[in-house]
Amino acid sequence: MSLLPLRLPPDLEARFLADDGRRSLPHIRGVLLTGILAFAGFSLLDIWFLPSLSIAFAWIRLGLVCPLLLLLLGLTYRPGIHRWSQGIISAAITVAGIGVVFLRWAAPITPNFDEMHVGLLLVLMYAYTVSRLRFFFATLVGWGLIVVYQVTAAEIGFSATVLAKSSFLLTAISLIGMYASYAQEKSARKDFLQSQQILMEHQRAEDLLLNILPKAIAERLKQSPERIAESYLEATILFADIVNFTQLAEGLSPHDLVELLNSIFSDFDRLVDQLGLEKIKTIGDAYMVVGGIPVVRMDHAQAVADLALAMQQVIERYRLQGYPQMDIRIGINSGPVIAGVIGLKKFIYDLWGDTVNVASRMESQGQPGTIQISQSTFDILQSDYRCSLRGNIAIKGKGDMTTYFLHQALHHRCGTIP
Questions:
Q1: What is the pLDDT of residue 255?
Q2: How far apart are CA 188 and CA 177, in angstroms?
Q3: Residue 418: pLDDT above 80?
Q4: For residue 310, how far is the Cα from the chain centroid?
């Protein structure tokens, strides 16, 4: 194992510390409870093996150490305490270690035998391994207790031989424990990084799915693999086509062409998101949007109309930026629609029905720079938007249909693009 600094980049380090603190709390409670039971249990052994010292030891074990550990256990249930989890377990280990030292002070002096280091060995092993203290805190607590032991042993009057043997054993255990603690924390950090990588991949997959399917449909697909197909009584569909884009493409490199089309459609995408509509697909330089699907809304026609007007403004901006021949032709229709997800490998959310076909004809048989709407859409919009009659036009498969041009909104609607 390579000995590398146990630190991540600042943003990851903060997330690791918060995550480690939250995940450690249940374990810390278990450690504290085990410590309380151990000290209480040893009081029973004191009665059996050291009856003359059992009362003095009980004051230390049950009157000092256990109440302090109980207090620390109670603190772990305070909101936000996970930020202080390492401090709590460090304090608990320190209390346990000093409790062992106090027990030795209460016992008769036996300079040629050191029982104190045996109890400290248990505390050190707990500190470096079981407690899940991070390396820095475990090392600080471990060596701090060894220093306390050295000072106490010297004050008690242990012989140099006993002190040397005990100190050597405690030092060896501490060094081994440091290595174990380092390996444990390094493994925890590695696991955290892997979990973050998994989360990133999951989020990337989630984002990709949401780029393909509407959010509501994606959520349903994740919950159930059943085929999704639904009918909607009212929806409004928009088709838009960039006029003269083919001629424009002839003067651009493939890279510049794709960059331009991506820039235009990205602007359209932002408008769709702002208005709460749903982009269905793009085909070449054509763009398809629906309102009122998959989330039903009463103002679907108005939202699509606002989008169409905003799309005209986007194209006007590109004309002023050096593409004077660029224009847009938009068609809109409202009515019942069937929507669903098709495909086995590459899902696609699509629409079907006569309403879709008519919307497509509204665009293809419209005029550059105009927004052509059907009678059904006009009936919804006429009180809120300025429209003009185009007249009757022949629609393939439908015969003559009365259509209108949409010009502008008569007043600003709340939540629309200014």
A1: 86
A2: 16
A3: no
A4: 33
Q: In this predicted model, which residue has the larger pLDDT, 249 or 261?
A: 261
Structure tokens at 93: 């280990």
Instruction: Judge whether 75 and 19 are in contact, CB under 8 Å.
Output: no
Report helix angle 160-212 to 215-223, nearest 10. Answer: 120
Confidence of residue 212 (pLDDT cuts 50, 70, 90): low
Q: What is the mean pLDDT of residues 315-331?
A: 91
Instruction: Give SS3 for 184.
Output: helix
CA distance 87 to 85: 5
Instruction: Answer yes or no: is pLDDT of 417 > 80.
Output: no
pLDDT tens by residue, 257-285: 889 999 999 999 999 999 999 999 998 88
Give percent above pLDDT 90 in the chain.
Answer: 50
Task: Report the C-alpha dihedral over residues 362, 363, 368, 372, rounded to 10 degrees.
Answer: 40
DSSP symbol at 60: H
Mean pLDDT throughout 158-186? 89
Tokens standing for residue 237: 């569909």
Whole-Å CA distances, 232 to 127, 138, 353? 64, 63, 11
DSSP 68-94: HHHHHHHHTTSTTGGGGHHHHHHHHHH
CA distance 50 to 299: 85
Rounded-to-integer distance, Cα 213 and Cα 228, Å: 12
Asked whether the beta carbons of 351 and 280 are under 8 A apart, the reply is: yes
Q: How far apart are CA 111 and CA 156, in angstroms?
A: 8
d(CA 113, CA 101): 14
Average pLDDT, the chain: 87
**Whole-prediction pTM:** 0.58
As a three-state string, the secondary structure of 306-352 is HHHHHHHHHHHHHHHCCCCCCEEEEEEEEEEEEEEEECCCCCEEEEE
Q: Helix, strand, coil proportions of the chain in percent (round to 5)?
A: 60, 20, 20
Which letter does DSSP use for residue 402 in this model? E
Token pair in block for residue 417 = 């693009």
Q: Is 260 helix (H, G, I), strand (E, B) or coil?
A: helix
Mean pLDDT lowest for which of 20-29, 180-189, 393-402? 393-402
Provide the pairing of β-strand 371-374 with 229-243.
unpaired
Residues ≥6 apart with Cβ < 8 Å to 137? 86, 87, 89, 90
Contact at 8 Å (CB) between 353 and 336? yes
Pairwise CA distance, residues 104 & 58, whole Å: 13
